[in-house]
Write a structure and sequence with these properties.
eight-stranded mixed sheet; 2 domains; FAD/NAD(P)-binding domain
Length: 353
């Protein structure tokens, strides 16, 4: 992504809204700020915007975002940024917000781990599931020296698996997606799942079954990876153990562990906000238990919440819209359709050209 305004010295001006988290929800919230004529900054702990979509599976295809029949995760992030950058939001990357303070005038100060302090009139949490780390297989012992070369917890580049014999572990959406997605890339794909059936989306599960029937992939259910055999600086094979205690060995160049991630809210958990199941409770206006502090996306909890990208985008629009009553107290908030707003903006640009 290009065109980001990066302020890393803590000297950014007071903005109307500080958005903590630069995933899809945070980026779309910044767009909504532009649409509602308020200034904002995004603070993201990763080196780039995009959240998990960029950090964990940039090449994974997403199928359930409105208007995109099929889109790679990284491309979705790029499209969201292209939509947003016309409003020139302030963006701070590589900084983790560790605390907030509500000032006497109602504004908010947030401080980062490196000591930067930023002030805004309102605050929006869009930090997803918080800090995340991949789940590992304890029976494999210390394999840190293999991670990123022979053992992976996400597919960041298909080229890492090109022409390789790949064993994928897991039965959820990611494992099924890449069992299908690495066909034609890897020389061989084998899926290993410890349960008797998949937990992933029915459509992809059917595609895996069809690929298995066609001899394109191997599938081992009720089976776990018990150990690995090393060779040189990588792996040579994995040992499988079925629940009936039978064992077998598979030659493998790559082990792709897609068994989920552990997440925690980190410092946010100690902010005194009402929490349920590691998420921040919000009301119908996306407001937390602190007036002027809002939450959107996976970090927000409310009855009937569905944790998908589409819902996060809706949450962002709601949170920004309702934050206007806090940012601009006493002002009458009028709704303006995007088509009308953009038409006026284009006319103004033409008049000043």
């Amino acid at each position: 992504m290009t065109g980001q305004q990066i302020f890393s010295d803590g000297t950014g001006a007071i903005t109307d809204l500080t958005i903590i988290g630069g995933g899809p929800t945070g980026i779309f919230a910044a767009f909504q700020c532009g649409m509602n004529n308020i200034s904002c900054r995004i603070i993201e702990s990763m080196p780039q915007l995009g959240g998990q979509l960029y950090a964990l599976y940039p090449e994974k295809h997403i199928y359930d975002v409105a208007g995109f029949p099929e889109v790679p995760a990284a491309s979705l992030v790029d499209s969201l940024w292209q939509q947003t950058e016309r409003y020139h939001p302030e963006v701070v990357t590589g900084e983790t917000v560790v605390s907030f303070r509500k000032l006497e005038n109602g504004n908010f100060e947030v401080a980062t781990a490196s000591g930067l302090v930023f002030e805004s009139r309102a605050l929006l949490l869009a930090a997803g599931l918080g800090a995340f780390s991949p789940r590992k297989l304890p029976q494999l012992g210390d394999i840190r020296d293999l991670e990123g070369s022979s053992v992976f917890y996400a597919v960041k580049a298909k080229s890492d698996f090109e022409g390789k014999s790949v064993v994928i572990v897991g039965g959820g959406d990611s494992a099924l997606d890449w069992t299908v997605g690495l066909q034609g890339v890897a020389s061989k794909v084998t899926l290993v799942h410890r349960m008797h059936e998949f937990q992933g989306h029915g459509k992809t599960a059917r595609e895996v079954d069809e690929a298995k029937a066609a001899g394109l992939v191997d599938v081992h259910l009720n089976t776990e990876v018990a150990s690995i055999e090393r060779q040189g600086g990588g792996i040579a094979s994995v040992q499988l153990c079925r629940k009936n205690a039978s064992e077998s060995t598979l030659e493998a160049d790559r082990l792709l562990l897609l068994i989920g991630f552990k997440s925690n809210l980190g410092p946010i958990a100690d902010w005194g906000l009402e929490l349920v199941d590691n998420a921040v409770v919000v009301d119908g206006q996306m407001k937390t238990s602190v007036d002027g502090l809002y939450a959107a996306g996976d970090i927000a909890s409310y009855p009937g919440k569905l944790k998908i990208i589409q819902t996060g985008l809706s949450d962002a629009a709601m949170a920004v819209r309702h934050s206007l009553t806090y940012i601009k107290p006493g002002e009458k908030i009028r709704h303006s359709f995007s088509s009308v707003k953009m038409a006026k903006a284009k006319k103004s640009e033409e008049e000043h050209a």
